Every structure is written in structure tokens, then in C-alpha cells.
Amino acid sequence: MAVSTENAAAAIREWLQENVTGNREVSDDEQLIENGVLTSLQTVELVMFLEDRFGVTVEDEELDEENFASVRTIADLVTSKSA
């Protein structure tokens, strides 16, 4: 089942608020890795959440700063994998 970018982004923002930012809202374009919001361990935890929630598989070579730079880039990755 295809996932919309909006649904993926909403779930990612919610996960970040609950697990990373202490309920601080994150915009879709905020630089997560560059600004130190998301650590490497949190990125792995986020991948596990995405795989469980959306039934996608994130390959090792996809675990890079380009794909995990912002909520928008992560949502785009999930959407492309669920199509």
C-alpha cells in the first residue's frame, strides 16, 4: 500500500517529538543531522520505526545524510519505497 508523503511526514514528526526533541515541534525542512537534532543511534531507531510502521526496508546504503537530512527527505524516502 502506497504511503502519502503527508502521512509519512506526520508520523515522522510525531516520532521525533516523542523520542528526540522532548515535544519540540520540528518543521519539515529543519536540518536534523546537520543541526545535531538526530544522532546516529536515533537514526537507527527511526529506521526501525519506519520499517515497522510503513512496512518498508531501508537498505544500509540508504542510511546517509542526504536521505535523513530532514523530515521531508525521510518522508520522500518512505514514500518512494512504499510505492
UniProtKB/TrEMBL annotation:
InterPro entries: ACP-like_sf, PP-bd_ACP. Residues 2-82 form the Carrier domain. This is Acyl carrier protein. It comes from Rubrobacter marinus.
